[in-house]
Amino acid sequence: MMDAVSQPDVVVVGAGAAGVAALRACNAAGLDAVAVEARSRAGGRAHTVTVGGFALDLGCGWLHSADRNPLVAVARTLCLTVDERLPPWQDPRAALSFEPGAHGAFRAAQAAFYARLEAASGEAGDRPAADFLEPGGRWNALIDAVSTYVNGVELDRLSVKDFANYHDTEVNFRVVEGYGALFARLAAHGRIAYGCVVSEINHGGRRVRVETSRGALEARAVIVALPTNVIAQGRVRFSPDLPAKRAACAGLPLGYANKLFLAVDGAEDLPENGRLFGATDRRDVGAFHFRPFGRPVIEGYFGGALARDLEQGGLEGFADFAIGELVRALGSAWRRRLKPLCASAWASDPFALGSYSHALPGCWDQRAILAEPVDGRIFFAGEATSPRDFSTAHGAWMSGERAAAEAVRALNGR
Hints:
2 domains; globular; five-stranded antiparallel β-sheet; single chain; 12 helices
């Protein structure tokens, strides 16, 4: 049975970034709140592991829009180290995949593509972003590859209007000890029931009843902070059903973005903070960050269908693909110098089923629908509910605070 309070004011379903923020905000407002989390840890898609003596982020790793990101100050308050160095994708000196002059040509083509998307976003209707690639353009495949890292999906399944709504100040920091470590510290003193899988949220009675693998909770209000794929696939049921919410989640699916970390023997032969694409003329390629934080490690990024497919081969399959790309770029002698450390597998994670949300073409307005409260008792949080900061941890965090404020107003008014 549930070992937390059986009838709190608020139950927060999920203890990822949004859930932790909501729990803390409810408690700060004087409400009796508890979070239930299916995993044995907090943080959700923010997950730091220690392998080879290094803190490695298998999930989100960047403090995006750092000049307005509230988690920057939070990290510093917790005495974590914020690294302000320029990320490799913004540093022209880090571009290692291009012949002389080619990097500038790629950046120009990419900028022109984004300008076309921005212009199209003001038109009536919505279209797939792929419609705005230059016909026969030399850099189309690589622009599409970058979309898989950024959006978790290829351009033919990406809403132009939703993409244009994203607010990026292009200031990006990192937490040296790990983004997941930040949320682990934030959750350390919260009342969270771990290993607690929610099966149903029943809002047909006077109180909302949350059925879990460890018993039931009845609350005055519930904050749902779950990934969209979990809701869309019916992993958690609503009774009575909430078809508009399930439809919104289906229109805001989580894409796929995975990481692989490789240890490097003789890493000093690689430029610190360098960046290499597995190829520049294919979409299904990895992007490799050399020696992040000066460590003897390569951080590999894989997105979209490629990331999903590579999961099937486990760590060995990931490593074979990545090392093959690196050897083609760096030379055969590197094969014996690279050793896999760990890889993520978010598509296979039953409590995530993906990495971060994007809107399908025509579904750009579903974020607002998903964020709407139900009957003043069920509130929704998570990065997918953020109108301008979706797909980010800080967007999730701020959505949790927003949902908590809505719950506080509703309960106090009641």
